[in-house]
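so my prof wants the structure for this chain in the tokens format not the other one, which i didnt know existed until like an hour ago. anyway here's the sequence
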Amino acid sequence: MNRTSNIDEALERLTRLETDGHRVLSLYLSLDPSDFPNLRERHMELDALLDDLERRHATEAQGPHAERIALREGIERVREFFTDAELAVPSARGLAIFCSVPIELFDVVSLPRGVPATAVLDARPFVEPLVELAAPERWCVLAISRRTSRILRGTREHLVEVDSVLDDVRGRHAQGGRSQARYQRGIETEVDEHIRSTCSNLYERFKGARFERLLVASPSELRHRVEHELHPDLSQRLAGHFEIDVERASPEEVRTRALPLIEADESRRERETLDRLEEGLAPNGHGATGLDEVLGLLAEARVQTLLFAHGFTAPGFACPQCGRLSVGALACPADGTTPEPVEDVIERAIELALRQSAEVLAVRHHPDALAQRGSIAALLRY
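here's what i got, hopefully its the right format
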């Protein structure tokens, strides 16, 4: 069994999974207390999902006997996994299970927030909810006061404190006059050294494990002093500044205060990507819209960034030989094979884009900008 809370790692593994023609059971379950506050309700939700899945596929009398047996074994494997302890994971707001007995697949992914309860049986893992949850940015918050520094890493959903330092910066002197002035200058020198060493430590950590965006939490009087000491590679990632009680704030309090800045930054960068799309839609530009055209460009591996409206789904077809996706049921132009219907071609398009190392952007903050473009678009490599 593979178990992880790293959604990016799970996506990498699942999108490259070789199923050898066997179907995969994908199950998403919310553990959010606001949705299901007690274990009894969570067990009931799980049972309802699996019972419904079994009923939906019970009529597959024409399917291979081995597939029907594999489905029953997979459902039983999932039922056995979900003990009370697994339905009350304190660090998770949801769980995703990917199971296929014939290929010995059983992956468990802890989710940072609740998701709609879903059970899907398909030729590929159903990963679209994971794409929605995967943060396109990796965030870092540097919380720093005159004597304390803390470094927190993670996503908009969860920040983890990875380092904290308390430097021996002296307090104010009791005497006044020139003695006080000299003493205060000494203190400010120590504060500057504290800031300098903190920023140096942050850069060393960045070189070892890079992040995309940075926020600074500090008293306002330290803001410019901190920014002055940031390495240029960090300065270009700086997304904002906020004030907080550096010594006493919990990681969750830091995340809560940082979230409005994170959302504003996401919205701004999303808008920039949409503006690039508009420019790319000019004649001879590198932009495309509409499901049919985007699927064709994915087949040619020309998509650099795939954009789709949050929650957008559409039926389509997939070639069982080469995996080419299409809106219609015409024979595959690559090998002449008759394509098979798929319930949600957007899920397959996301998976294909990820396998081609393309960026995938679920548009949340500006959905109307894509609605008039068929809810899906692409920026092209060439």
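also thought this was worth mentioning. The mean pLDDT is 86.
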